[in-house]
């Protein structure tokens, strides 16, 4: 397992090295600190005057963690990191990664901090996977993202086609509120679907009734108007249901 991770990380670092070299070939040396051999272990910022860790210190810090000395010795913020939901293998890894980055971005805009904090969003088997990453190999958060996404690729929510939305129909005894929740969830999973299609497709998906007729008669101009009209009819439906139960 560790050998596999090492090979994957080496490939990713070589790919990044080629991209960096390509970018550097179009620019002059920045701050006199351009790394011409593509070695990505160095900090792209000017670190002159910063004392490098001794070999013994490096071993102590990186012996159990997957990050390079550059990441391990980067200054960490004094304030505590935000609280994260722990990743569950039943969850789409891309959703988890976005939630983690969004939470961190609000507090810290710093690649080493992202690297060091990511394990705080893992638990159980997922944390055990993280602990199998080879020590002193990863030098950026992009590598963490890639490896995490590959490891849990089978948990990704599959994108749907527009045909799935067309065939999403309101059941005979299904409330408008329940159906619209299901319809909107499906629409979010359809790749490249636009608001015009979501609106124009809706009337044919509804069971026959006053709301579907009103949409056929006059389609909403935008999603805000659609939401207003849906909310209005859900309210009417709730009142009718309440009267039936009395």
Explain what you see.
With 246 residues, the chain is an all-alpha fold. 56% of the residues lie in helices and 0% in strands. The longest helix has 23 residues, at 2-24. The radius of gyration is 26 Å and the shape is elongated. The chain starts with a helix and ends with a helix. Mean pLDDT is 82; it is low at 33-50. This is Retrotransposon gag domain-containing protein. It comes from Vigna mungo (Black gram). Residues 13-53 are annotated as: Disordered. Residues 27-46 have a biased composition (Low complexity). Residues 13-26 have a biased composition (Basic and acidic residues).
How would the blueprint of this fold be written?
Layout: H1 2-24, H2 55-62, H3 69-72, H4 93-107, H5 111-117, H6 124-131, H7 141-151, H8 162-166, H9 176-189, H10 195-205, H11 210-217, H12 223-245
């Amino acid at each position: 397992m560790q050998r596999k991770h090492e090979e994957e990380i080496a490939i990713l670092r070589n790919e990044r090295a080629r991209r960096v070299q390509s970018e550097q070939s179009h620019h002059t040396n920045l701050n006199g600190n351009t790394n011409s051999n593509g070695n990505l272990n160095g900090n792209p910022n000017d670190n002159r005057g910063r004392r490098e860790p001794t070999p013994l210190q490096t071993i102590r810090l990186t012996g159990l963690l997957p990050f390079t000395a550059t990441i391990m010795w980067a200054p960490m913020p004094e304030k505590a990191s935000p609280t994260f939901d722990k990743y569950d293998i039943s969850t789409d890894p891309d959703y988890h990664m976005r939630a983690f980055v969004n939470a961190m971005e609000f507090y810290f805009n710093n690649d080493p901090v992202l690297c060091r904090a990511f394990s705080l969003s893992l638990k159980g088997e997922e944390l055990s996977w993280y602990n199998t990453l080879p020590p002193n190999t990863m030098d950026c958060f992009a590598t963490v993202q890639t490896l995490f996404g590959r490891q849990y690729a089978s948990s990704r929510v599959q994108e749907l086609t527009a045909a799935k939305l067309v065939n999403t129909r309101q059941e005979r005894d299904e409330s408008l509120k329940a159906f619209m929740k299901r319809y909107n969830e499906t629409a979010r999973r359809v790749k490249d679907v636009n608001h015009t299609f979501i609106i124009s497709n809706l009337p044919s998906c509804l069971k026959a009734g006053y709301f579907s007729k009103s949409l056929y008669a006059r389609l909403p101009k935008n999603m805000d108007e659609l939401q207003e009209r849906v909310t209005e009819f859900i309210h009417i439906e709730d009142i009718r249901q309440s009267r039936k139960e009395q």
